Amino acid sequence: MGRDHFPNIPIGAGMGFARGVMLLDDCEGTFSWYPYGTGGDDVHTYATAAAFTGTYGIQLKTRTTNAAANDVTAVQKFFGHPESGLLAARAKIATPSQAAIKSINFLLIHANGIRAYTAQLKFTPATPKIEYTDAAGNLVAIPTLARGQGDYQFITWELVIDCRTHQYLSAMVNGARADLTGIDVWNTGAITQHYAGLALAVIAIGAAPAEIYADNIYVGEYLES
């Protein structure tokens, strides 16, 4: 297996992408993610406080006022299917207060015109615990990735999948990598569309709003040599 392109290099949105690059967002342009939230006053925007490099990063906050447990705020973006069939996603993610967060969810989605599939990494700060979602939608812990993260500490999340076999290849969080080769991703149902996508979500543990930051977001083909 070869390499993907420009792994952690922020590049202005006005520049052209190399072959294999499907998304490269340094969060310095216009906010173009599709938002979702359950709170009514949820926040999903580019904000200075959320920047890892440059001026802005993505800020996700479940509400601006206290609300309820399990409030969700998410953003997602869809694009074409990878030519090689191998897909990698990577982002810098930070938490201003882990105490308010039930989970952070990092999802890499693809559909082949017949079925839709979702690969997911889920971080539960209180444990701490990292899990992936298996073919039946069950969460399975990855003990080698279980490590704490400080507030306001940006760490790299990465997920690599094979869209041809609908299987995981690897996951990396905070410098620890897990080989997930051969593990089927979640088969989420029948669909006629053909696409790939990335989603990022935060879920509140209680009434206090939960918030995360993300920057230097990359999705691209993982090219075979």
Helix content: under 10%
CATH class category label: Mainly Beta
Strand content: over 45%
What would you report as the Rg, rounded to the nearest angstrom? 17 Å
Q: Assign an overall shape.
A: globular
Structural class by SSE content: mainly beta
Structure commentary:
The chain is mostly beta strands and 225 residues long. It has a single domain (32-221), classed as Jelly Rolls (Sandwich). The protein has strands at residues 21-25, 34-37, 43-47, 57-61, 72-79, 86-94, 101-112, 115-124, 129-133, 139-141, 155-162, 167-173, 176-179, 186-190, 194-204, 211-221. The strands form two sheets. Strands 1, 3, 4, 6, 11, 12, 13 and 16 form an eight-stranded antiparallel sheet that branches. Strands 2, 5, 7, 8, 9, 10, 14 and 15 form an eight-stranded antiparallel sheet that branches. Strand 12 and strand 13 form a beta hairpin.
Show the helix and strand layout.
Elements: E1 21-25, E2 34-37, E3 43-47, E4 57-61, E5 72-79, E6 86-94, E7 101-112, E8 115-124, E9 129-133, E10 139-141, E11 155-162, E12 167-173, E13 176-179, E14 186-190, E15 194-204, E16 211-221
Antiparallel strand pairs: 1-16, 2-5, 3-4, 4-16, 5-15, 6-11, 6-16, 7-8, 7-15, 8-9, 8-14, 9-10, 11-12, 12-13
Summarize the structure.
With 225 residues, the protein is mainly beta. Helix content is 0%, strand content 50%.
